[in-house]
Structures are given as structure tokens and as C-alpha cells.
């Protein structure tokens, strides 16, 4: 059994023979735009965006089909050349033989080191890779070689890193033509390429990015010569795994000061030949990256071309990222605690890489989507709450007046871009997520006044919830909704939230559930836009309407008795409950409203009583819940019960008994449970059905759906995927974690824990999951974790473990404790600990379960804060006023007595 081992409290880990597992890659990046992936054999890519790739873009398959890698050769005298990263044809030939070299991978947050031991050569090499957390636009390599044999060894060290130096658009299209743009020259320390132009979707433009590879010995001595082009290095008939320059030795490297143009570039650096005595070691340093000028790149690279400078930046980078991860768990299972360390890190990667830019992520050209903006903020609220308020406010500017939103997110915070080519894109779930995140923010901060802050609205040609175009739209006005007088219109955050959720209430299909349109959270349910409906997200909107009512009640308690809302919205607050069942009338109300705001708005606002609004929202929410309970509760032939969650493009119910077999979808159960649509007894029935039809132990948990047995073209492309892969029946971690969260919220802690524990045990078993620590997007039919690192699953798992499992909750700014830890999760001494940030204060909470009680047996009996018994009317709460009086400069220790 091959398994990684955790090495320390920071969850650094070691894996033996990592190259014997395919598809492994590791992220190394910084917050200044450098995004790289690196495999155990140093394949992978490096880029700063879709149009700025230093190393050629790679998919997951190209990690093992491509011969191009970051390579470092030792041309050993009297022997064949040796690759310190295992990328020679001879090493590849011995990969599954007894002669295979022993390798060890050690990695921590944003750094990787691979050690290779060759008994044949009598050499051991360690290659450490990182991107400086200090922000320089370079990737660094440190190669340490040691003679472990019995004889002195003479060799010439040679760096060989192919540089791509252009847009990913040119990987296939115009690959050769764009190489003709390259202007290459050698300098004292390396190879520089300055393409004359860029060919990509932006058109032909003057290039403004310099690419390069510099290197030195540990004593800062430069290379002695260079191989600046791929063609000269690999030679006729050669390859990156058997370059002619090293094997045939019929190519002479060039000196510094040479220029050439029109070729594929190689960062080929030749160091001085040396003899390594027995037991002796040498270090070589490499910096590859970007600059806006040659001088700028030199400045960035030279900082790290000494052993001391490299060691300093390694320690700085390790400390920087480990300090960023400020939530830590201490349970009876240390492996789980370490696993969660990596999960807590994953949302940071999402903010850097977006949904793309790692080998498994074929989500187009980078960036994040609307849903990601809000779900990633869930983790940010837990780990770094300062600054979140402004981010949330800016994000609201992506909402249109018809309740839909922009789908292309700009590079800057609060920047939204009109859809390319005016393509209509409407995801009916998008209105759900802003309130989820805003509600969490208010619970933790107590900042009810945030609801009354004003924000702009997004404007483009798309109108009437994607049904029509605004032919009068003028892009030059700044993508903002304007009044009839031409002034920029603003509404409160509350108005934005009401618009999203009320328009969804009226936007229904023939069964009086929200129209599925182009997709819901599952983008692969994309083929039912005419007659499809989502019962699942209708339930989610019911939850949101209740949440809005509760927030308004709190506002009223604080003294806000009325609010101003856009005059056009008056239609959406109809008091006639009979219209809720009248599908035709609901559509008319929505259409009339959308037409009023299609081009401009009046700018006039009406005063609305908060008490009236609360009543209106509650009535709508309760109507939805009763409608779903009465119309969508299923009982099948085997006696199982669950909720139908969708209607297809023929207007037919999707779940239940069919000729092809039983059809059940996890999403349908998640939102009916989470929203309170499902009664307590119905939750029990759903659990029983999910355990029977969806749970798959060999895949780590609950499948997203049963096998529908057909390519269901009237619902979505997901059914074209092989069953057990991605959205079609894989264990889709995002929805599985949300299922756990819903169960915890409804009081089913053991069942909620079972979901998380199953996923953890599977992911932590390297033999079957084949991934480094952390949670992937999904687990495939063969048990392999796929689309690792960049997944909303991590934010939801962090949120669920902290707020539900450990019960660390905010209640309008107060710190509330509602633990749901099972007995097996406590350590032998009856304690479980969690470290976290709340109200910008650092806390360590210890739950003391000295009587060894299980989750259904204990409750909070007392609080000790910094050694003193804390007195409060609510035994499970620390008031915000008391929290704010605590010091900002020290950690505060809380003991929660359970009895």
C-alpha cells in the first residue's frame, strides 16, 4: 500500500515513488499573478493569464504525453546523461523495472521538493520548486546534487526548460507562425525572449511581456554557455528525453551576447564542468518568469540567485502561507485535522487560479463565475473577514434590474463584463448565492446596516431575464443601469436581494416551479430551457425568502420601520395570495415588471413598511414549501420516499420509477432538506432512500444521481457523460458536502458526519483516490479524485466543519457555540479544539467532554474565557460587546464545558 505521510503540524507530507501515479500535479503560485502547476517529474505549465504563458499550456493528459518539462541534466563523464527529474529515455525505460531510481516527494503549501536517488550513478538530487510569496513574477528551482557513491564524479550541469512565451490561443492555432515573432538573446546569466507581437483574441498588438530563464551556482556564478533554441538542443531525430546535443554531442552551445530570431525557445543554461568528490554536494539555482522589460526581469530573477537568498525566500513563503491558514482543528483523528488544513487552503487557490489554469480544469479561459464569487467568500468570511464588506458590496453591482446577473467577471473586484457577442446566459440558481453569503456575513458581524448600503446595477444588452434584447443599449455609458434622466441608478443591497429572489418567485414553468432555463448550479443541466423546471432551487428560493423576512425583522427591531424600494418593484409585492397558484398571472406580473426596467428605470422610490414586507415574504415562502410537499413527494414501487427535483424539456417529472430504472438526484434532496421543505420525518425517509440508491462506498460517498440509462437530450449534456463520471453519477463533492450541511442544520449530526467521514477516508486513501491531500471536485467510477484543488467543495466543507460540526456560529455578531461533534471525534482526554478568527480576534476553543457523551447527550453548560468563568443569560453565547473589548494582539482561549 502506497500512502503519503504527514510530516508536521503544517500538514507537509511525503510520498514515495510519486511518478508511479498518473495525473498528479501540485499548485505553486503567488498573489501577484504567477500560476503554475508542477508534477513529480516537473511537467506542468506556468502562466499569468490566458495570453501570457511562460511554459506551454497543458491538460491533464499532456502531463504524461508531453516530453517537455522543466529539466535539469547532468552530463556525466563516461556515462549517459542523467536527468535529475527522471526525464531521460533511459530512466523512462526503467520506470517499472528493478533498476528504477528511488524517489521521494515532499510538499507543503506552495512548495514541492522531489528527491531522486541513483545507485547506478552514485548521485542523489533534490529539486525544490516554489513561487515567491513576496510577489516577484518568477518561479524558482533549487537543485542540490550530492555524490553518494565511492568514486569522484565529473559532470557538466545543464538546465533545459522549453519556453512557450505567448497566448494559449496559439498552442494549436498559429503555433509555428507565432514562433517567428520570437527575438531571443543570451545574457550573462540566461536566455531572454521578447516576442515582437501578440496574436490572440485581442488582435495583433505589440508585445509588452519579456520571458526568460536565468541560473547560477549556489555561489552566484553564472552559466558558461547556452542552448537558446529547442531545435539546436534536441537536434535532428532527438527529443527532450534524448536531446542530440547531450547524446550525440554534435552541437556547440553559444556564449552570452548571441542573438537569434524565429525559433522555439529553450532556457538552456550550461554550467562549468566540475568534479564532485565523494560525499560532496553542489547547489544550482534557476529563476524563470516574466518582466515588463529586460531590466525588470533581471531585477526579479537576480534577487534569488544565491543560496542564502533562496533559503530566505523559501522560509518566507512557507511562513506566509501557513499563517494565512488560520483555522486549525485538533480532534481524535490527526489525519483528518491535517486533511482539513489543505481543504482550508483550497479557497485561496480558487481566488488565485479561478476555475481554470490547472491541468484538470477545462473551464475555458480562466477567471471565476458568478457563483464562485459568492461561495469563495464563504471561506473568506471564516478565515479573513476584514475587507469582506467592501468585496460583497462591489459584487452586488453585477446584478441586473431583472434579477439576473453578469456572467463574465472582470479581473478587478467589482468589475463585470457584458457577455461576448451578446450571447444570452441565464443560470436560474444565481439569485440564490448572494443571500447565502450576505446572511453569513451579517450573522458574524452583526452589520445589519449593510443591507441599507447602496450599490449600482449591471447593464448590458440582455433584458427581460434573457428573453429579449435592449436594442437601445449603449455600451459607452459604463455598463450601469440609468434613470430616464440618464443618471446612474443605485439601490440598497436589500433591494438587490429582494429583486433576485422575488423575480425568481414569479419566473415559473407549467408546474409552478422556477424555470430551469440554461442551467442551475449544475451547468450540465443545460438542455431544458423551454419547459424545464428546478424544484430543488425553488426550495432554495423559499429558504431565501424566509431568510430575508428574518433579516427584515431584525432591522425592524433595530428601529428601521420602513425602507425605500424602486417604484417598479411594487408589482412584485402583490398581496393577492390567490395569484401564487395562477401560473399565467405570475408570468404576466414578471413580464410587466421586466418590461418597465428593460432600458431605464424611473429613479423614483416608494416607501414600504418593513412589517408588510416581512408578511409578504413569509407568505411566498410558505406557499412554495407547501406546494413542493404536496406535489413533489414521491413513493416508489420499492417503498422508498424522496423529492422530485426537476422537470425535463417535455415537461415531464425527472425522478421516480422509470422503465430504465429508479431515478433519484441528490441535489433535489439537499435543498428540500436545507430549506425546511422536508419535514423531520421526510428527512428520515430521504436519508433512507439516499443510502439505498446513491451511496457508493467504493467511491467515497453519495453519487449525484442514479443511472438514468439514456442520453437524456431533453435535460442536459451530463447524460452524455459516462455514468459515474463528473455530473452524471460521480460522487460530486460539492453537493455531497451541501447534503452533509443540510443534515447537520436539521439536527441529523451522525448522518451529516457520515457524509464527510466517507469522503475524507476515501480522499485520504491514496491507493484509491490517487490525489494529494485535499478535496477534489468529484470522485470518478474508479475511485480517482478529479479536478483537484479548484472546487467550491472546499468552501462548503470548511464552512460545514467549522460552523456545524464544531458549532462555531455568529448570531448578529455574538459568538455562539452549538457543537455537533460525535464521541469518536474527541481525543482520548475528552477534548476537541479549534482555532479560528472571529470579529478580527484570534480564538482557540476547547470543547471539554469529560463524561465522554455522544452528540445527542451533551449540551453547553458553561464557558471559560481566558481563565475566567463567563457569565451570560445564554450559556452558549459570548456577547459581541465583550468580544470587541478583547485584545487584538493575542490569542484568546475559550473552554466550553459540555454536560
Topology:
Layout: E1 5-6, E2 13-16, E3 26-29, E4 35-38, E5 46-49, E6 52-55, H1 62-65, E7 71-76, E8 82-83, H2 89-93, E9 102-108, E10 111-118, E11 123-130, E12 138-147, E13 153-163, H3 175-179, E14 183-186, E15 190-193, E16 197-200, E17 203-206, E18 210-217, E19 225-229, H4 230-234, H5 244-247, E20 259-261, E21 265-270, E22 274-276, E23 281-291, H6 294-302, H7 307-324, E24 328-330, H8 334-353, H9 370-383, H10 388-395, E25 408-409, E26 416-417, H11 433-445, E27 454-456, E28 462-463, E29 468-469, E30 490-492, H12 493-506, E31 533-534, H13 535-557, E32 562-566, H14 583-596, E33 605-609, H15 610-631, E34 633-635, E35 641-643, E36 646-647, E37 656-658, E38 661-663, H16 666-674, H17 680-693, E39 695-696, E40 701-702, E41 731-732, H18 733-745, H19 749-764, H20 766-769, E42 776-779, E43 785-788, H21 793-805, E44 808-811, E45 814-817, E46 831-838, E47 841-848, E48 860-865, E49 868-870, E50 877-878, H22 880-884, E51 891-898
Helix pairs in contact: 8-9, 8-21, 9-11, 9-21, 12-13, 13-15, 13-16, 16-18, 18-19, 18-21
List keywords for this structure.
Glycosyltransferase; 51 strands; 11-stranded antiparallel beta sheet; 22 helices; 25% strand; 899 residues; 28% helix; globular; Beta-galactosidase, Chain A, domain 5
Amino acid at each position: 500500500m502506497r500512502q503519503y505521510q504527514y510530516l508536521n503540524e503544517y500538514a507537509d507530507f511525503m510520498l514515495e515513488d510519486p511518478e508511479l501515479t498518473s495525473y498528479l500535479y501540485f499548485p505553486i503560485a503567488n498573489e501577484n499573478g504567477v500560476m503554475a502547476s508542477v508534477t513529480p517529474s516537473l511537467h506542468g505549465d506556468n502562466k499569468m493569464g490566458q495570453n501570457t504563458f511562460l511554459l506551454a499550456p497543458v491538460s491533464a493528459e499532456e502531463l504524461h504525453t508531453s516530453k517537455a518539462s522543466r529539466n535539469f541534466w547532468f552530463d556525466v563523464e563516461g556515462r549517459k546523461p542523467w536527468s535529475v527529474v527522471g526525464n531521460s529515455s533511459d530512466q523512462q525505460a526503467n520506470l517499472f523495472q528493478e533498476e528504477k531510481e528511488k524517489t521521494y516527494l515532499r510538499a507543503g503549501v506552495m512548495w514541492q521538493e522531489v528527491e531522486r536517488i541513483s545507485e547506478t550513478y552514485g548521485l542523489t538530487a533534490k529539486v525544490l520548486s516554489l513561487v515567491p510569496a513576496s510577489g516577484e513574477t518568477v518561479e524558482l528551482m533549487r537543485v542540490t546534487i550530492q555524490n553518494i557513491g565511492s568514486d569522484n564524479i565529473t559532470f557538466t550541469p545543464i538546465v533545459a526548460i522549453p519556453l512557450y512565451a505567448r497566448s494559449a490561443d496559439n498552442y494549436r492555432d498559429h503555433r509555428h507562425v507565432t514562433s517567428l515573432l520570437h527575438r531571443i538573446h543570451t545574457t550573462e546569466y540566461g536566455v531572454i525572449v521578447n516576442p515582437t507581437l501578440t496574436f490572440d483574441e485581442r488582435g495583433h498588438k505589440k508585445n509588452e511581456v519579456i520571458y526568460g530563464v536565468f541560473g547560477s551556482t549556489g555561489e552566484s556564478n553564472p552559466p558558461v554557455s547556452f542552448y537558446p533554441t529547442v531545435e539546436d538542443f534536441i537536434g535532428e531525430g532527438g527529443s527532450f528525453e534524448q536531446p542530440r546535443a547531450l547524446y550525440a554531442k554534435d552541437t556547440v552551445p553559444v556564449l552570452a551576447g548571441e542573438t537569434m530570431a524565429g525559433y522555439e525557445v529553450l532556457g538552456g543554461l550550461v554550467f562549468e564542468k566540475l568534479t564532485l568528490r565523494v560525499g560532496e554536494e553542489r547547489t544550482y539555482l534557476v529563476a524563470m518568469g516574466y518582466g515588463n522589460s529586460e531590466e525588470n526581469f533581471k531585477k526579479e530573477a537576480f534577487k534569488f540567485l544565491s543560496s542564502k537568498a533562496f533559503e530566505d525566500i523559501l522560509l518566507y513563503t512557507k511562513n506566509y502561507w501557513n499563517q494565512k491558514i488560520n483555522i486549525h482543528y485538533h480532534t481524535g483523528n490527526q489525519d483528518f485535522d491535517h486533511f482539513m488544513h489543505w481543504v482550508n487552503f483550497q479557497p485561496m487557490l480558487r481566488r488565485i487560479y479561478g476555475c481554470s489554469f490547472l491541468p484538470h480544469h477545462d473551464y475555458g479561459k480562466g477567471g471565476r463565475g458568478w457563483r464562485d464569487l459568492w461561495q469563495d467568500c464563504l471561506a473568506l468570511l471564516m478565515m479573513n473577514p476584514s475587507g469582506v464588506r467592501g468585496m460583497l458590496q462591489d459584487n452586488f453591482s453585477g446584478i441586473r434590474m431583472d434579477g439576473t446577473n453578469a456572467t463574465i467577471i472582470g479581473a478587478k473586484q467589482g468589475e463585470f463584463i457584458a457577455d461576448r457577442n451578446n450571447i444570452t446566459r441565464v443560470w436560474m440558481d444565481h439569485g440564490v448565492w448572494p443571500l447565502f453569503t450576505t446572511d453569513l456575513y451579517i450573522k458574524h458581524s452583526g452589520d445589519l446596516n449593510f443591507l441599507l448600503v447602496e450599490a449600482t446595477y449591471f447593464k448590458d444588452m440582455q433584458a427581460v431575464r434573457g428573453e429579449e434584447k435592449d436594442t437601445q443599449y449603449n455600451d459607452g455609458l459604463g455598463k450601469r443601469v440609468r434613470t430616464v434622466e440618464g443618471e446612474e441608478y443605485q439601490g440598497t443591497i436589500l433591494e438587490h436581494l429582494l429583486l433576485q429572489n422575488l423575480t425568481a418567485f414569479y419566473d415559473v414553468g407549467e408546474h409552478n416551479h422556477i424555470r430551469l432555463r440554461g442551467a442551475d448550479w449544475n451547468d450540465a443541466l443545460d438542455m431544458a430551457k423551454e419547459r424545464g423546471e428546478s424544484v430543488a432551487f425553488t426550495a432554495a428560493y423559499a429558504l431565501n425568502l424566509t431568510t430575508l423576512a428574518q433579516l427584515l425583522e431584525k432591522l425592524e427591531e433595530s428601529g428601521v420601520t420602513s425602507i425605500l424600494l424602486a417604484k417598479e418593484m411594487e408589482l412584485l409585492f402583490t398581496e393577492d395570495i390567490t395569484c401564487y397558484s395562477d401560473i399565467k398571472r405570475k408570468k404576466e406580473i414578471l413580464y410587466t415588471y421586466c418590461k418597465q426596467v428593460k432600458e431605464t428605470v424611473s429613479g423614483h422610490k416608494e416607501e414600504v413598511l418593513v412589517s408588510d414586507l416581512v408578511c409578504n415574504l413569509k407568505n411566498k415562502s410558505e406557499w412554495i414549501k407547501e406546494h413542493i410537499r404536496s406535489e413533489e413527494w414521491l413513493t416508489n414501487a420499492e417503498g422508498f420516499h424522496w423529492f422530485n427535483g426537476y422537470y425535463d424539456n417535455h415537461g415531464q417529472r425527472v425522478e421516480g420509477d422509470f422503465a430504465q430504472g429508479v431515478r433519484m438526484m441528490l441535489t433535489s434532496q439537499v435543498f428540500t432538506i436545507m430549506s425546511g421543505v422536508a419535514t423531520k420525518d421526510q428527512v428520515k425517509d430521504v436519508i433512507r432512500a439516499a443510502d439505498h440508491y446513491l451511496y457508493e462506498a467504493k467511491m467515497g460517498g453519495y453519487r449525484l444521481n442514479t443511472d438514468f440509462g439514456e442520453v437524456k437530450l431533453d435535460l442536459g449534456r451530463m447524460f452524455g457523460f459516462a455514468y459515474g463520471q463528473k455530473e452524471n453519477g460521480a460522487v460530486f463533492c460539492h453537493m455531497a458536502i451541501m447534503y452533509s450541511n443540510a443534515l447537520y442544520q436539521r439536527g441529523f449530526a451522525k448522518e451529516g458526519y457520515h457524509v464527510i467521514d466517507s469522503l475524507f477516508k476515501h480522499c485520504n486513501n491514496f491507493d484509491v483516490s490517487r490525489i494529494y491531500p485535499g478535496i477534489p471536485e468529484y470522485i470518478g467510477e474508479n475511485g480517482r479524485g478529479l479536478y483537484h484543488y479548484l472546487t467550491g467543495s472546499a468552501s462548503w466543507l470548511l464552512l460545514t466543519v467549522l460552523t456545524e460540526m464544531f458549532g462555531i456560529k455568529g448570531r448578529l455578531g455574538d459568538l455562539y457555540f452549538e457543537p455537533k461533534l460525535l464521541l469518536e471525534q474527541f481525543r482520548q482526554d475528552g477534548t476537541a479544539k479549534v482555532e479560528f478568527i472571529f470579529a478580527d480576534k484570534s480564538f482557540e476553543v476547547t470543547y471539554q467532554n469529560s463524561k465522554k457523551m455522544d452528540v445527542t447527550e451533551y449540551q453547553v453548560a458553561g464557558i471559560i474565557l481566558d481563565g475566567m468563568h463567563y457569565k451570560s443569560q445564554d450559556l452558549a453565547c459570548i456577547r459581541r460587546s465583550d468580544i470587541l473589548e478583547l485584545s487584538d494582539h493575542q490569542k484568546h482561549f475559550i473552554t466550553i464545558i459540555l454536560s
